[in-house]
Amino acid sequence: MTNSAAATSGKVVLITGASSGIGETTARHLATKGHKLVLGARRTDRIAALAQEIKEAGREGLHHQLDVTDFDNVKAFVAFAHARYGRIDVLLNNAGVMPLSLVEELRIDEWNRMIDVNLRGVLHGIAAVLPIMRKQGAGHIINVASVSAHRVDPTAAVYCATKFAVRALSEGLRQESKDLRVTVISPGLTRSELTDGIADPQVKSAVRAMMDRASIPAQAIAEAIDYAINQPQNVDVNEVIVRPTAQG
After folding, report:
1. What is the mean pLDDT of the chain?
2. Known catalytic residues?
3. How far apart are CA 241 and CA 12, in angstroms?
4. Containing H/E element for 88?
5. Which residues pair with 186 in a beta bridge?
6. Phi, psi of 181 (to 5 degrees)
7. Which of 118, 143, 122 lies closest to 221 in space, CA to CA?
8. Residues 142, 95: contact at Cβ < 8 Å?
9. Is a pLDDT exceeding 80 seen at residue 152?
10. Contacts of 99 (CB under 8 A, 6+ apart)
């Protein structure tokens, strides 16, 4: 398929948290497949530069400021994409934060931030696109959870709780949906900026050491998302788990 043909047939894909990590890498990857991308994040300078990079490569990318904790802002992001393209094929709920700490430290502001971004942000994305996708009679919601949606580790109790919730929410939505597809992507530890939000220096150092030792490149997650998007409408990809290979 030529680039022009791909651009014509590509899906309209909205990506939250597109300014770095999995979101940024996935945007670049999906652009090469001819999809029409709408990038959202709080750091508008980054998504503007990424959208420009995509356009200069002869592909299609737009950007819009997005704070997933603000439902009105999420609705504006979705409305922007819908006004431009007249449809929304895929929403990638990717935005997330991971300020790990022991529960006994009572970092309640950090707990609330994780709940607001990791869970409430996903709910906001779903609520904003669901009426459009229902009216279309088709659509695909992809929620980025984590292997932490399957296990719990010290310092990660609240983070894991939000990811368990995302996985449960996704399964409930999938069961309720006849015309829509719902997929959970559960990455293992992925090289990204997530560790930047960890305030405890010992925890941050330990997680970064793990990342240096055995982490997944964001490109692997981008390819898993691409796989889910490319399945026929009658194929239901419930969950894709991506883990690093065992280290000797």
Report:
1. 90
2. 159
3. 24
4. none
5. 241
6. -105, 145
7. 143
8. no
9. yes
10. 107, 110, 113, 114, 159, 197, 198, 199
Query: How far is Cα 156 from Cα 245, in angstroms, rounded to an integer?
Result: 22
Residue 91's SS3 state is: strand
Structure-token pair, residue 35:
């999809």
Cα distances from 4 to residues 7, 28, 38, 86, in angstroms, run 5, 17, 18, 20
Residue type, 108: I
Q: What percent of the chain has pLDDT over 70?
A: 92
The partner residues of 13 in beta bridges, in order of sequence, read 37, 90
What does pTM read for this prediction?
0.90
Confidence band of 70 (pLDDT split at 50, 70, 90): very high
Helix %, strand %, coil % of the chain (to 5): 55, 15, 30
CA 199/CA 220 separation, integer angstroms: 28
